[in-house]
Amino acid sequence: MLFVTPIKSERCAVLRHFFIHVFCLLALALSASLAYAGNKPLTLSEALSRAMAQNPTLQVFDFRLQGLEGRRFSADQNPALEAGLEVENVLGNGNRQGSDAAEYTLSLSSVLELGGKRQARVSVVDSRYGLVEAERRAETLDVLGQVAQRFVATLALQEKLELAAEAVALAEATHEIVTRRVDRGASPQAEVMRAKAALTRSRIEQSRALSEYESRKIALASLWGDTRLDFQSLEGDLFQFGSSDSFEILYQRVSESPAIQIYASERRVREAEVQLSRSQSESDIRWQVGIRRFEETDDTALTAGLSVPLFSGRRNRGEVQAALAARDEVQYRREDTLLRLHSRLFEAYRQRQQNIEAVEQIRGQMLPDLSDALSQTREAYQKGRYSYVEWTAAQRELLSARQALVDAATMALLNQALIEQLTAQPLAGR
């Protein structure tokens, strides 16, 4: 018997450990502790653990499996016994008036199933149990992939909040320097108003980023069913990527992932349905035994009977053909899914590499150059050699480069999360 009880707690623990291991190795600095305090930063490990334990979508599978247990119990039953009572020769006319000439027959009947129908029914339910388990694994990967991607996106906003605070501080310093120059008569009054407007704009952007950050945290918490936040910030390294295997190795993992294993489980279901359809081609034998009482002579006699439907195999050909077609269809849907996953994996793989290279170039070349340029431009502005426009342009270029750095790192990690979701394994070198 394939199963007799709901999902065992040990099996859930093993499954949970596997998926957490897959995603906890994402490119973030993770905390190994699952103990949690209200003001402690949330780690990816904690977020994944919560989603595994509390995500409503994943809880549905327990009830689906319980339903299959009920169906298996029903499928394993023998045909029901039927009791019958038949009365003849009553309420007629002439010699048949009343019930003096009545005949009473008490019978017991049922069906003798042939062709292994009961075992075929049980096999269909058992194979569906395996399909639901495969769907659970695939859905778990999808949910944990969403957790990882939302975590990365929220962590990126957290990083951008720091940039927004730096932009406000820079705008405040700029306003102060410009005001001093205007007070000395070294710059026109219009520059103060422009600096003040720039400061207001940076504060508005900071407020917008903070609002979006709070919304992203709520969206993240919703994946484990929470509507209120019990954490203030996230803990992780947006710029830690690790290494990766070749695309060919990654694609091989995709072909063995739960998203593809679903089709193997579905094919087993279709095979079982084919066997069930073929078993229906075998004619069942309906039997009946009973005892008959003749009221007129006060005698009794035994009765027995058998009946067999004719041409059952011919009438069932359509069902067998439909079951075979459904089975053969699975292979082509599997191949179509593999092709689409190949495209998604290749795109994610290339984008991850490109964004990692962009991070390295921005950090190694662009930011140092723009930082030096801003420092020199500021000194030149204070000495009157550069205009306010040139100085603020240098500020915007540096802030834009920092934003680009965060965006590139975010895209690298989002694609990395997608790769690990598709392959159901962490990248190499983690």
Question: How does this model look, in words?
Answer:
A hairpin with a 4-residue loop joins strand 5 and strand 6. The strands form 2 sheets. The protein has a 4-stranded antiparallel β-sheet with strand order 2-3-5-6, with no helix packed on it. A two-stranded parallel sheet has the order 1-4. The protein is elongated, with a radius of gyration of 37 Å. The model is unreliable at 1-38 (pLDDT under 50). It is 66% helix and 9% strand. It has 2 domains: 9-78 and 126-281 and 326-423, Outer membrane efflux proteins (OEP) (Up-down Bundle), CATH 1.20.1600; 80-112 and 282-315. Helix 4 (117-183) packs antiparallel against helix 5 (189-221), helix 4 runs antiparallel to helix 10 and helix 9 (317-382) packs antiparallel against helix 10 (388-423). By secondary structure, the protein is of the alpha+beta class.
